[in-house]
Amino acid sequence: MSTTSNQKNGKSPDATAHLLAGASAGLVSAVTLQPFDLLKTRLQQQQLTSKHEVRTSVARELKKLTEIKDLWRGTLPSTLRTSIGAGLYFTVLSKMRTNWAEYKSTKDSTLNLKSGSSVLPKLTPVENLTTGFLARALAGYITMPITIIKTRFESNLYNYNSMYEGIQGIYLDDNKGLTAKGSIRNFFKGSLATLVRDCPYAGLYVLTYEMFKNDFIPVLVPQTLGDNRSSVINSSAAVLAASTCTTITAPFDAIKTRLQLTNETSMVKAAKTLIHEDGGFRNLFRGLSLRLGRKGISAGISWCIYEELIKSSFVQKKFIKKDAPMS
């Protein structure tokens, strides 16, 4: 893709640009793909509704819905969580990668750290893994309360009618709403399982995304696509990376959902409970197909929007650093 004059002059967008671009990408992704998240949560909760319930499926869950709009239940907390989380994640990730690339450049000025289709610098696989891991850990922990509200809204175990009701219900969860005493810790239930799922996922994702984007996909995408070539490369790399990492981290997603919908406090206990239920070891991968679809499409949308917004002429004019070297 052709570069802008600002890119050629070695200048890069500031943190505000990365925050807004990431939040915009997360917003579009969250609203578009909320039905995938809702159905995945419903599949993962099935043993909590009745021990003798017929094994559910996507088709059965769809039949239970009275209106199409019910597929978007939980969109508000999902949108808040994804847009805020994506904004924070992309901002922290770009800052870490850019600063590390600049540090490496001061040590060795002969290093080529520029990517052909991206504004993000090229780093080693270990550096990609580490920066992705740390950026997700920070963003994931900050947005954990919204994640729990989102999960409860998507589940039909809790009939919250508003965000306030959901916040109140979670705060008083240990006391079943019988007393005024509650705990802020309830908003961080399943934090460890979520971080164990998301941090390796994010680290592996950045590693595989950069590998697909810089080494494999460009070989397959023809130059004749012109200015659209970088979008195709970035989107394809994002989908492939998301599919790979989603499969690897699927068990932690099932454990996370169980912890956030019940009073279980141990990852090990939750995992044993899932395995001992009808379905056995497969329960750890329940909802994987929906998560694969959601994550793959979400990554394609989010990273394409993010990368293209960062390179857009509007961002280059409004948020350009005057004296910063291009990452």
TrEMBL record:
Native source organism of the sequence: Candida maltosa (strain Xu316) (Yeast)
Subcellular locations according to the entry: Membrane; Mitochondrion inner membrane
Keyword flag Nucleotidyltransferase: no
Catalytic activity annotation: glycine(in) = glycine(out)
Name recorded for this polypeptide: Mitochondrial glycine transporter
HAMAP family: SLC25A38
GO molecular function: glycine transmembrane transporter activity
Stated family: Belongs to the mitochondrial carrier (TC 2.A.29) family. SLC25A38 subfamily.
PROSITE patterns in the record: SOLCAR (PS50920)
Main location: membrane
